[in-house]
Amino acid sequence: MEIIITNTPEEVGRVAADLIAGVVRSRADAVLGVATGSSPLATYRRLAELSAPGTADRVDFSAVSVFALDEYVGLPDGHPESYAAVVQREIVNPLGIDPANAHVPDGSAADVDAAAAEYDLAIAHAGGIELQLLGIGRNGHVGFNEPSSSLTSRTRVKTLAPQTRADNARFFDSPDQVPVHCITQGLGTIGDARRLLLVAQGVDKADAIAHVIEGPLSSRWPGSILQLHPHATVVIDEAAASGLA
Ligand code: F6R
């Protein structure tokens, strides 16, 4: 595992964006896995700068495909905090990605279990994910694979941990509006990506990061699957690195 520790939270975004830009420069129709939440926002802002028309050595996202990690179950179509809406707002629009190439699990499907299984098939049909960008929850979740998730799990319906619902309440008008269930790529699905890139900023993530990097491989800390991966990079600021030995 490659560990990059930056001086500032903004620098995390610059380093991660450069790695992603490198993938797209070497393959214009790259398939990227994308995370939502706060952690990758600086990365997306930097990628938007790199892809802006008129930029020297511009990165062109027009042929790139993206697959989101997860989606809430049961939000109405078009809800501004659905991950479909977040992916559109934070990634597809600013980077100039073709909306037809943006994929998010269907959390409003009549049969969410079938939608989850279809999502894994869609990733396989696209040729697999070249680089999967990840954030991490304070309890160590990646995607919405909460502690005790099977290390070989595939995309499926999961129940959000109370701590995750509380942490994500900031995006909703009240905590009880945070959905209870989600569809998330499984840990096995995530591990199939040819490259993993995890970003984290702030002292709130220090404990989870220490377990990912230095702890034993354990379903208690789902992010520890990065230890199994032949091409995993962790980009963190000093605060997120503060729990490392
Ligand atoms: C989001 C996702 C989650 C977040 C995690 C951290 O698609 O899969 O694992 O990355 O909850 O969220 P933030 O970045 O908001 O602290």
Automatic annotation (TrEMBL):
<protein>
    <recommendedName>
        <fullName>Glucosamine-6-phosphate deaminase</fullName>
        <ecNumber>3.5.99.6</ecNumber>
    </recommendedName>
</protein>
<comment type="function">
    <text>Catalyzes the reversible isomerization-deamination of glucosamine 6-phosphate (GlcN6P) to form fructose 6-phosphate (Fru6P) and ammonium ion.</text>
</comment>
<feature type="active site" description="For ring-opening step">
    <location>
        <position position="146"/>
    </location>
</feature>
<feature type="site" description="Part of the allosteric site">
    <location>
        <position position="149"/>
    </location>
</feature>
<feature type="active site" description="Proton acceptor; for enolization step">
    <location>
        <position position="70"/>
    </location>
</feature>
<feature type="site" description="Part of the allosteric site">
    <location>
        <position position="158"/>
    </location>
</feature>
<keyword id="KW-0021">Allosteric enzyme</keyword>
<dbReference type="InterPro" id="IPR004547">
    <property type="entry name" value="Glucosamine6P_isomerase"/>
</dbReference>
<feature type="domain" description="Glucosamine/galactosamine-6-phosphate isomerase">
    <location>
        <begin position="13"/>
        <end position="227"/>
    </location>
</feature>
<dbReference type="InterPro" id="IPR006148">
    <property type="entry name" value="Glc/Gal-6P_isomerase"/>
</dbReference>
<dbReference type="GO" id="GO:0004342">
    <property type="term" value="F:glucosamine-6-phosphate deaminase activity"/>
</dbReference>
<feature type="site" description="Part of the allosteric site">
    <location>
        <position position="156"/>
    </location>
</feature>
<feature type="site" description="Part of the allosteric site">
    <location>
        <position position="159"/>
    </location>
</feature>
<keyword id="KW-0378">Hydrolase</keyword>
<dbReference type="Pfam" id="PF01182">
    <property type="entry name" value="Glucosamine_iso"/>
</dbReference>
<comment type="pathway">
    <text>Amino-sugar metabolism; N-acetylneuraminate degradation; D-fructose 6-phosphate from N-acetylneuraminate: step 5/5.</text>
</comment>
<feature type="active site" description="For ring-opening step">
    <location>
        <position position="139"/>
    </location>
</feature>
<dbReference type="InterPro" id="IPR018321">
    <property type="entry name" value="Glucosamine6P_isomerase_CS"/>
</dbReference>
<feature type="active site" description="Proton acceptor; for ring-opening step">
    <location>
        <position position="141"/>
    </location>
</feature>
<keyword id="KW-0119">Carbohydrate metabolism</keyword>
<comment type="similarity">
    <text>Belongs to the glucosamine/galactosamine-6-phosphate isomerase family. NagB subfamily.</text>
</comment>
<dbReference type="InterPro" id="IPR037171">
    <property type="entry name" value="NagB/RpiA_transferase-like"/>
</dbReference>
